[in-house]
Amino acid sequence: MKVICAQLNIVWEDREANYAKVRAMIDKLRPEPGALLVLPEMFSSGFSMNVGKVKEAVPSGTEQFLGPIARLYSIYIIAGLVTQGADGKGRNEAVVIDIQGATILRYSKLHPFTLGGEAQHYSAGDCIALFNWHGFTTTPFVCYDLRFPEIFRAATRKGAHLFTVIANWPSKRENHWVTLLQARAIENQAYVVGVNRCGSDPAHVYPGRTLIVDPHGSIIADGGRDECLVTADVELSKVLTWRKEFPVLEDTRLIAG
Predict the structure, then answer these.
(1) Which of these is catalytic: 5, 21, 41, 55?
(2) How confident is the model at residue 255 (pLDDT cuts 50, 70, 90)?
(3) Which class is 2-251 in CATH?
């Protein structure tokens, strides 16, 4: 099955401009039916702490924009957006849209980036989420979540074969991004799809480096620095065969703290 990653130079807090970028890229590619399209964290606004400006209703304008694209091309889509909770704080979410254009899953980022001020403006989610994509049990995470291997292992215990990590990960920690994506793949014998933005915003420069990593930790696609679509084929049999040949997950021990 085909995974498609949109590495965007996000226009700061300009939803319509970012929608136009995505639509042009997808219409040019004309993705094959059944593919999984993954867009970055907060793809329509950039990593903004201005929740009042970038928040969306539920269902959101972003879902209303992406739903028809999913139906037109019969693809699944994972995308980052912002909603607002009853506490007034934002929710940094990844939503999953199916080939009918329906939202089938909402995941709220478990780990707001405290050092960057995100925890002051966004509340943490409280659970992992999984969905089925052509036999792949798939788990979405968001950016800073990548630094917490325990949530990946929890998803693997629930059957995850493929992880997506949507991000606005800055250039000054690019080596961490690459290393951690590979580590999460190796540890869990799973595909890891890391979709990062490129370009810059008022606070940071971003390296791109959208990566698709196979269950052995090998990089099978790399977006480089510029705005582009990154694609690769993934095979469920590759995950299942490797886990059978090298059954390290069966030796997992849960140690009480």
Answers:
(1) 41
(2) confident
(3) alpha beta
